[in-house]
Amino acid sequence: MSEHAALIAPAAAEFAGILRGIGESDLSARTPCAEYDVRALLNHLLYWGPWLEAAGRKTAPPEVSTGEAEADLVGGEWLADIEKQTARLVDVFGAPDAWQGQTTFGGNPMPASMAGYMVLDEFVFHGWDLARATGAEFAVLPEVADAVYAIALEIGDQARAMKVYGEEVAVADDATPFERALGASGRDPGWTP
């Protein structure tokens, strides 16, 4: 699991590139996540990022007064905010020790590697969601594609039970590892707005 630490920075770099291409007019665009438009997906990322950072540092989660749905975190400085958050997550989860042992997320104990999986998934799957919604190209390194596919297979049943992944989507026999990962996470690789 700690070998995934080396994949965090390249995955984050592609994710950050997609973020920088999002304009004001894109915020209301539909995403492959049916319950989120671009603004709501950015809000989701900004809301849960500090929780993931705390899980990686094995510290207490942030104190919050609202749930994700009530939070309004996509203000005028949203890009700077999410870039700083992304850099902190890379700093934390780019270190192999963040993936070792146990941690908590949302008050629930879990293997620290699971928090790392969540960060890699956020960068890659939600990066792809945002790219699709805004018409941007999304490039995934082969080793990152292989990793998120393996993760999706490993945690798929649990993630679907928790409503983190959608129902598995069948992909073509000649699908790439990343397309297989998308399908395993409940995404249609051919989705368009």
Can you describe this structure?
GO terms for molecular function: metal ion binding. This is Mycothiol-dependent maleylpyruvate isomerase metal-binding domain-containing protein. InterPro entries: CHP03086, DinB/YfiT-like, Maleyloyr_isom, MDMPI_metal-binding. Residues 9-131 form the Mycothiol-dependent maleylpyruvate isomerase metal-binding domain. The relative contact order is 0.17. This protein has a two-stranded antiparallel sheet. It is mainly α. The chain has a single domain (2-143), classed as dinb family like domain (Four Helix Bundle (Hemerythrin (Met), subunit A), Up-down Bundle). The radius of gyration is 16 Å and the shape is globular. It is 53% helix and 4% strand. A hairpin with a 2-residue loop joins strand 1 (102-105) and strand 2. It contains six helices and two strands, in the order αααββααα. The chain starts with a helix and ends in a 9-residue tail after the last helix. The mean pLDDT is 93.
